[in-house]
Design a protein that fits this description.
Shape: elongated
Largest sheet: 2 strands, antiparallel
Strand content: 5-15%
Number of domains: 1
Structural class: mainly alpha
Radius of gyration: 18 Å
């Protein structure tokens, strides 16, 4: 039961758990720009690990009804695993409330 798909999904799950339960609360809070930057790093970490394991191996990964290479499998499966964590985090830390456009912000057309 040591299939490459299970290994990549396990790596994705661990990275998403660490990101949303440890790293983002400590470093990002409700700042969507910090979350986005750190999420790029988390996604890059997943791709780096999967690439180091399967790049050049020629292994095809089964993704529902079609086969893909390691890059697309790692990226798409990470996005699918990350989405529920992201929705939970955004609700818990009220990220969308802090991201709403503020008309009195410096540089806006309405500020006097």
């Amino acid at each position: 039961m040591n299939s490459p798909e299970i290994l990549v999904i396990s790596i994705n799950f661990v990275v998403a758990l660490l990101a949303y339960l440890v790293i983002y609360p400590l470093l990002c809070g409700a700042n969507i720009w910090r979350i986005a930057l750190n999420d790029l790093l988390a996604s890059g970490t997943v791709l780096l690990i999967a690439g180091s394991l399967y790049s050049g191996s020629g292994h095809e990964f089964s993704l529902l009804f079609f086969s893909v290479n390691w890059f697309w499998f790692a990226l798409l499966s990470y996005a699918a695993i990350e989405t529920p964590f992201m929705l939970w985090y955004f609700k818990k830390y009220r990220v969308w409330d802090t991201f709403k456009y503020n008309k009195s912000s410096p540089g806006s057309r309405d500020s006097s």
